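question for whoever is on the cluster today: can someone run the full assembly for these? two chains, 656 residues total. i dont have access anymore since they changed the login thing
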Amino acid sequence: MNAYRRLAGGGDVVAEALAGGNDTARDDGPYWEELVSRAREANLLGTLAERLHERALIDRVPEAPRAHLAAARIRSEAQETAIRRELRQLARALAEVDTPIVLLKGASYLCAGLPNARGRVFADIDILVPKSRLDDVESALLLAGFVTTHVNAYDQRYYRQWMHELPPMLHVRRQTVVDVHHALVPETSRMHPDSAHLIEAARPAAGMRFSVPSPADMAIHCATHLFCDEDFSHATRDLVDFDSLVRYFAVAQPDFWERLLPRARTLQLARPLWYALDWSVRVHHTPVPAEILRDARRDAPALPLRWLMNGLLGPALRPTRGRASTRWARRALYVRGHWLKMPPHLLAWHLTVKAFRRENASGEDGKSADAKPDA
Amino acid sequence: MGPIVARIRSPLAPVHAAIARHYAAHEVADDGQFSDFPVTVAPPSLARRFIRPTVTFRLDDAPVFQPLPAEQAFALLEWGLNWCIATQCHQYLIIHSAVLERHGHALLLPAPPASGKSTLCAALVARGWRLLSDEMALVALDRGDVTPIPRAIGLKNDSIDVIRRFWPDAAIGTVVEKTLKGSVAHARPPAESVARQHEAVRARWIVLPHYAKGAPTALEPLSRGAAFMRLVDCAFNYAMHGRRGFELLATVIDAAQCHSFSYGGDLDAAVRTFDALAEAS
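^ ran it for u. tokens below:
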């Protein structure tokens, strides 16, 4: 922990408040402003609200920040209703396709009734299907009113030939988005986990046509998504997920620890799991047994690289976008993420195409903005 | 401003001046007080401060919109704060509507853009109606009343000159040309409206305004069903509240008289119509 504080430049106000270690009830304007602002940045306001409710601390929060927590709760509850409704629609759309369909990430936490689903905000539903059934799944979704996004030819090729998922599919009327995956990491990646293992071990989700990954696979996928992706803007939230998953499964699933590392090695995802365990302990004091940590370290990178990565991960995992250290660390990890994703010649080609396209598009479309000023 | 405290940081002198002009009557919070929205309006980079200067609006250090030309900095701040409230403050049902008060009752003018809502709102304020908001009705989920959030009144295009003529005392700031919404200027809210910004009011009149050049001034009764559908269309976060939102809107509509109002630019006649409405009930 001390090392993390040193690396990251002080305590992490959001992690401390989520753990309940600090005195949340204090009537301290700047403290609450910092906490609400950082939690909002990390998309963790709903999670924070739920945890304060569970600990019966919410009534002791000063009125002004409490309004934000109440608003975040209203939002996450509305979203849960919307996601459940969308899952019913999706089940209907895919009823005729004879294939296992595994929910990933947010939707799987929700359907498995896991504690980290409470208050968690997400918009898209991610599903994993065997690659051999990808065409059938896509056809069924098209028939049900979903359309493919990213219609330009390069993007289509990028997704279909190199990535681990189809271009996001958007429902024309409901405006909901489904990401259809056939693998856990891009086809072009240096790692080659076999998603068939994950699909095989998946468990039925209560009362639904879908299934959810086994506990070990869920934790491993969370770690992979967190540490292999090039985008670290959601890393703070993903690490909170990982901590919560591990804490829950360690109690609810007696053989969780025995299975975790062998499973990660089978899937060739032991490296990201090592990062996740290490950083979850540093940031959230996750109770990982000492022998598990020792065993997991066998898959850690060698020392110089480990130092470099730790130097980047400290600031990158913090919800402090305003700080130069966080911004630069995330930029460096963005480059690393692309490096992992594609071999160099492909990467060079991809970045060239993207650079030229941005140049052509600038001044015409403002699509990358989050919203129009009209909102 | 009303229930919201914003911590605004900006290195730009015109932004400081515009805040001083339009928010002269508002309180300044202590530095140690909780602020709801720490925001900045600043150039995205050092280069952009000097070469084709642009500005970015940030909440929690995250940019919210595409950068805009530097002249539009204050308008961007206003739009940015609207965005913050509309996307975050779900403790209210938020309706895109002007809200005014007379004799302790609120008048809601829910409307899509370009229906003459802000012009009408400024005209009524000029003739003594209290301003709760020219942009959004914050309906409290538990009480069903409307919380004031008096801010600078946004005026667009032709209505800037119309209001200058109609309200010679108005403190109207710099006109910014060629924004996404055309020419934009802001008018300072009256000090009395700001002083009473913590007095929530129940809606008594819900009036759907419609501007058509040269149309006669006419106030017509409207069915509650039609008014309900307009409020749903104009609400930013209706879906978020599910059944509770439906019931809340039904309660608000049941306690109000509903009308549609069309006018063609005769603001004197418009104000007379609303004054008569207020006196009659």
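summary bc i know u wont read the tokens: Chain B has nine helices and 16 strands. The longest strand of chain B covers residues 92-102.
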